[in-house]
Amino acid sequence: MSKIFTLSEAGSIAIHSMVLIARSNDSLNVIKIAELTGSSKHHVAKVLQRLAKEDFLDSNRGPHGGFRLKRSPDQISLLEIYEAIEGKIIVTDCPMDNSKCPFDKCIMENTISTMATEFKNYLDTQKLSDCLE
Question: I want to staple 76 with a disulfide (CB 3.0 to 4.6 A). Which of 15, 101, 128, 130 is the partner?
Fold first, then answer.
C-alpha cells in the first residue's frame, strides 16, 4: 500500500519523545521512551542525543538519569523539533525539482508545494505545549 505522505521514523520519534518528556514530571530515559513509542532504543537514543546537542534537552546519566526539557513547552514549536532532526523544510514548486517544466502548466497543479507549505505552517504554529492537553 502506498502512502502519499509519511514522516521519517526519526522525525516521528523526535516529536513524540519531546511530547512525552514535556508531559512527564520526572526525567524520562531512553528505555521508557522506546517502550512508549514502540521504537528501537538505539534509534531513540540517537534522536535524543541530537535533540540534546541542538539544546532542546538536558540529559543526565545514571540510574535516575534521563532527559528533561531545557525550555518551556510553549517556547518550542513542532517545526523546530522536526527541522533539528530532518533539516530545514524546503518548499519547491516542482515535485521533481526541475528548473524548467516541459509542460505549459504543472500536471500536479502545485499540489505538492501546497501540501508542503501547509505541513510546514502547521508545525510552525503548533507549540509543544499544544500537545500536552
Answer: 128
Q: Domain range holding 33?
A: 9-131
Give residue 47's pLDDT.
98
- With CA atoms as reference, report the closest residue to 19 among 91, 83, 69, 75: 69
How many domains, the chain? 1
CATH number for the domain including 83?
A: 1.10.10.10
> Cell 542525543 appears where?
49
Distance spanning both ends of the chain, measured CA to CA:
33
pLDDT digits (tens, 9 = 90+) for 32-72: 999 999 999 999 999 999 999 999 999 988 777 899 999 99
Name the 3-class secondary structure at 13: helix
